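<context>
A single protein, sequence plus fold
<entry> Chain with its tokenised backbone below
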Amino acid sequence: MSEPPLLTIGATGLDVDQLVADLQATADRKMKEGAYADARVARAEKTNLVHLRGSDDFITFYLTCLRDAVFVDISDFEIRERRRFLSPLLVSFKKTIWKLLKFYTYRLWSQQNQVNGLIITALEGMEEQSAARIAALEKRLAELEKAVGHGRP
């Protein structure tokens, strides 16, 4: 038994199939232009990664997203307090604690960024090696198929 669609679009003079095709074409064009390579888009699309795995560009897209999201943001941030009671005192206390711990935190974040960068570089290198090996094997297979094909009557 088929279920009714969750959303239907209809209006006089509206070609729904053309609308869907235009939306798909726009999304494809933007993906090629790199508009969806942002890490936030990757997080939003993580549920769709299962569907993307069959795609030839999956690894390249995924590694690009990882490259964009790999580093921890070590920039300073604003310290706020939502509680109204003693708010200025709490903010001052938190700022003092942050000033005391900032050096150690930055040091830890910097080390983590180095490790993250090395890991993504290693993954990219492994992917490039695998792609080169696969291309060489496909070329060799094509040559062998060609040679076997010529040898048969």
